[in-house]
Amino acid sequence: MRAIDAGILVCDTCHALNREDPDRQSIPCSRCGATVHPRRPNSIVRTWALLITATILYIPANVLPIMTVNTLGQGSPATIMSGVVALIQHDMLPIAAVVFIASILVPTFKLVGIGLLLYSVQRHQPLSARQRILMYRFIEFIGRWSMLDIFVIAILVAVVNFGHIASIEANPGAIAFATVVILTMLAALTFDPRLIWDNTESDDDNE
Question: Do residues 34 and 127 share a domain?
Fold first, then answer.
């Protein structure tokens, strides 16, 4: 049985449990006073809006140069993939692996994963609630590492600065990518995971 079936609502602000009152349209939290909703208002619409915007910005984030590696006064702007290749050529394999995983694999998985969750919840696709919640928790887990490559670039810009011998500069692609990361993090926050369990009964019937 779900909490909402027992007339119990959870406050999104302080996570306190509150009793549902059918006679009141707006229920204040008994602990913090915030308005309590059965589900986050417009959760799917807001998540779709953030996800679509992030997907659009993901194109310039990969097309525009993200950094420039200068060696002996020579260097050219590099995109994410060409930057990974440049780091490999400069024997920076661990950093190249971090940038590739954090810049290519993680954002792509988050975009696809959140999109699948939204689609499966809206269309009642034959995907079990356990599979959906595992996917959601994994997206939340990798979300904390989304800004890792931006931090790496920031550290490289500050540390690798030896004038004409060697230097690294950040480019506009880094801003676009940071925006994508922020939008995907917000999308994961605006999505209400309780919607997954609202579809459990219909999913079981389909199976």
Answer: no
